[in-house]
Design goal:
The protein has 77 residues and is of the alpha+beta class. Helices cover 19% and strands 36% of the residues. A hairpin with a 4-residue loop joins strand 2 and strand 3. The model has no long low-confidence stretch (mean pLDDT 78).
Length: 77
């Protein structure tokens, strides 16, 4: 289980989250904000598959996923 999955896993039943992704050339900075105010940030490779692999483990709790749409962010779209 990755660090973010652990923090989401500690949430009480019904806790949801918002995920924000800031896409860069070599990495994606990801922040997860739970509805109870707890947040966790991490960096993963700038690869759509790697990014989604990192966050899909807790996909059922995600209410909203947003990303920065600069020239390197379009792959995520």
């Amino acid at each position: 289980m990755n660090k973010v999955a652990k923090i989401i896993g500690k949430a009480q039943e019904g806790t949801s989250c918002v995920v924000g992704i800031d896409a860069h050339k070599n990495t994606n900075a990801v922040t997860v904000l739970r509805s109870d105010g707890l947040s966790k940030s991490f960096v993963c490779p700038a690869d759509a598959k790697a990014t989604f692999t990192a966050i899909l483990r807790f996909a059922e709790t995600i209410d909203l996923l947003v990303y920065e749409a600069g020239p390197t962010g379009f792959t995520l779209a």
